[in-house]
Amino acid sequence: MAKSNNLEQGILKLIYQNIDLANIGDAAGLQASATVGSLYIALYQSDPTDADAGVEASYTGYARIGVIRSAVGWTLTDSTITNAALITFPTNTGTSQTCTHLAIRTALTGGDLVYHGALNSALVIENGNIPKFEIGDLAITEA
User: Fold this and answer.
1) How many CB atoms lie within 10 A of CB 104?
2) What is the pLDDT of residue 28?
3) Where are the beta strands (DSSP E) in 34-88?
4) Residue ranges per structural domain of the chain
5) What is the DSSP code string of 10-70?
6) Helix, strand or coil, per DSSP, at residue 123
7) Which of 35, 46, 137, 143 could form a disulfide with 133 if both were Cys (CB 3.0 to 4.6 A apart)?
8) What is the rounded CA–CA span in Å between residue 80 and residue 115?
């Protein structure tokens, strides 16, 4: 059974923009968080899988990047959410590393895996490289 467009958009708004998902349970629906907070973009050397078993990037200088859970951080079009601002990772100051996947997580370190997927092409991060995603490069679709 498929989800309606309304539910797909509602799920994305709740998770990425911190907007209530009305009419689920009672009239108030699923409520947004009291504090907006952020989601964290993580690079991976292997598929994180649904079981959260991948190998995260570890190049010298690497850190996850926080994106605020609001329309400032994410843009919704139909049933796809995209990054609304440039996402820039720290400069690699060590040896080369290749990343093939990306994940959305709930914390700067540790936290829960929310979404994951393969990059369109492998990202080779050489010493001195600054990995980045332009506005709209990250697209998450609910279907």
Assistant:
1) 21
2) 83
3) 38-44, 65-68, 74-77, 80-83, 87-88
4) 34-138
5) HHHIIIII---BTTSSSTT-BPPPSS--EEEEEEESS--TTTT---B---TT---EEEESS
6) strand
7) 137
8) 13
